[in-house]
Design brief:
Number of domains: 1
Order of helices and strands: HHHHHHHHHHHHH
Radius of gyration: 17 Å
Largest sheet: none
Shape: globular
Helix content: 55-70%
Number of strands: 0
Structural class: mainly alpha
């Protein structure tokens, strides 16, 4: 369900009431991404909306509450690809599997560290698919092109979040690109002209990423929305 929401542009929906409060609540267990899009209009008042706050914390983890209140992201570097990922890619598949199993990942909320690591692992395993290969070859230029509109419209918190993902080159840049694309969509949803103007170019690329790594794309869209909402709460 993630890729269709991206490809259709629904991830850039402005915050507004689209479904009933009952349906909003149901969506959190069916599709957290769709739930975020439906509930975005209520997020700025999350501190006084106990029911919504409890739902989000149950699905996304306690870190979501912290981000919505304007707090820092304690896991901002989790899931990024750095030089150790390059070394890891050279290992035989059997040895990589042994390393993954030894990590003993504990399932939790979508924005918890282990869940982000699982999503990044999946992206790592599919990084050389044809569609992602083309995206990787353009990643450095795309990140460079997005740097100015993200800084001007999103501010230092957005810039820092993308930087924490190690925006570099090739497939190493895919986690940073995923988060940058997410910020473009959610800034466009808030009426920022420059990000909105980027959507016709970005959405097909974002959908390519979503088809191969739907969990990471969903996590990053939730993360982007919570960080932007939290930035407003902390002002």
């Amino acid at each position: 369900m993630v890729a269709p929401l991206v490809h259709s542009g629904l991830i850039a929906l402005p915050p507004d009431r689209y479904v009933s409060a009952t349906d909003e609540a149901r969506l959190w267990t069916a599709s957290p991404l769709a739930a975020m899009l439906a509930s975005a209009h209520r997020l700025p008042e999350i501190a006084s909306d106990a029911d919504l706050g409890e739902q989000i914390a149950a699905v996304c983890g306690a870190v979501a509450t912290q981000l919505l209140a304007g707090g820092p992201d304690p896991y901002e570097t989790v899931g990024r690809f750095d030089q150790s990922a390059e070394v890891f890619a050279l290992l035989p598949a059997e040895e990589r599997d042994r390393v993954w199993r030894a990590m003993r990942v504990v399932p939790g909320g979508l924005l918890d560290a282990d869940e982000r690591m699982v999503a990044a692992r999946h992206l790592f395993e599919v990084r050389v698919r044809p569609g992602l290969g083309r995206l990787s070859s353009n990643a450095e230029g795309l990140l460079r092109a997005l740097q100015k509109p993200l800084a001007e419209c999103g501010g230092p918190r957005v810039v820092a979040a993308v930087q924490a993902r190690n925006p570099t080159r090739g497939w190493l840049a895919l986690p940073a690109l995923s988060l940058a694309f997410a910020f473009v969509a959610r800034l466009a949803a808030r009426g920022h002209v420059a990000p909105a103007g980027l959507l016709p170019r970005i959405l097909p690329l974002h959908a390519t990423l979503a088809r191969s790594a739907p969990r990471l794309v969903a996590i990053d869209l939730l993360l982007a929305e919570f960080l932007l909402t939290g930035a407003g709460a902390s002002e």
